[in-house]
Amino acid sequence: MSQFNITTLGQFIIERQSEFKYAKGELSRLLRDISIAAKVISREVNKAGIAEIIGETGEVNVQGEDVKKLDIIGNEMFISTLSRGGECCAFASEEEDDMIALKGIYSKNGKYVVCIDPLDGSSNIDVNVSIGTIFSIYLRISEPGTEPDLKDVLQAGNKLVAAGYVVYGSSTMLVYTTGKGVNGFTLDPSIGEFCLSHPDIKTPKDGSIYSLNEGNSIDFPSGVVEYINWCKQKDKETKRPYSARYIGSMVADLHRNLLKGGVFIYPPTAKTPNGKLRLMFECNPMAFIVEQAGGIATTGKERIMDIEPSELHQRVPIFIGSENMVKKALEFVNK
Ligand code: P6P
Known about the structure:
Blueprint lengths: L8 H8 L9 H21 L1 H4 L4 E5 L5 E3 H17 L2 E6 L6 E2 L10 E9 L10 E9 L10 H4 L6 E9 L3 E6 L4 E7 L4 E6 L10 E3 L10 H11 L10 E2 L5 H11 L2 E4 L12 H14 L3 E3 L19 E4 L1 H11 L2
Parallel strand pairs: 3-5, 11-12, 11-13
Antiparallel strand pairs: 1-2, 3-4, 5-6, 6-7, 7-8, 8-9, 9-10, 13-15, 14-15
Helix pairs in contact: 1-2, 2-4, 6-9
The site of 6-O-phosphono-alpha-D-fructofuranose (P6P) has 9 residues, from helix 7.
């Protein structure tokens, strides 16, 4: 790409604005607000070791996980940016027990709500492994101008208006969809802009990567164990044995599989009988993106995006990625 032939995220959103059903610019501004927060978090993530903001605050979040300082920075960054932006009336976060009605001077009239996992995979921060932000955008159900409530946030994935992730890796990338395909933008720190680098991402229908924490396999449903064993068998025609790739950071694992093809599985285990990953903050947004790129996302029993959520932090099992690989896994799981 010539250094002057760039399309920034802002330019791209404006160019595509006509595709948004609500094309008065609110969604464009909301996506801009999210990208601003992502740039600041990218700066903080990239200087974490120097600024000694690594390490634990001693606090524990609603998931019972040790909260890292960067988690707090990420969470507060989004609350502040979205409050000032005025397009979002309510905010739910993996780091917050309950939904937050934003208190910016325009927030009450905001048409959208945002669910966010500000820093997913945060246990990897202090070992310098890629982490990510995952965001979901829904239209509010309550009337603009009124106090938002939980029903505005607790919506099925099939109601998503937009979803995306930011992966803080060898470079910082923002990947998002508004239901019209998936596009990826790489942050150019020299100009402080996300630039279009991966237009119209389509995930391969097949792949040779399987991603899951095999350390839990003693607890896996037998169908999952059988599928993993199938992945390990030698078979030229299906290019097996497949490669096991698992970073332990959902955004990084799914980003690699999205581009190269692969299947990511977090099945039920004894410790997490409904799986570990959260429907509202991880599974719905990633399912929207993967489906828009031609993949599929299911609990093994039903489409992730059709689940009617019952509570904000509910967890679901997930099989997500290349269509033919997920379908093969389900042959074993539902046998
Ligand atoms: P496990 C990170 O804590 C996370 O929420 C996801 O990013 C990741 O895919 C998963 O948990 C890893 O869980 O049990 O394999 O360490």
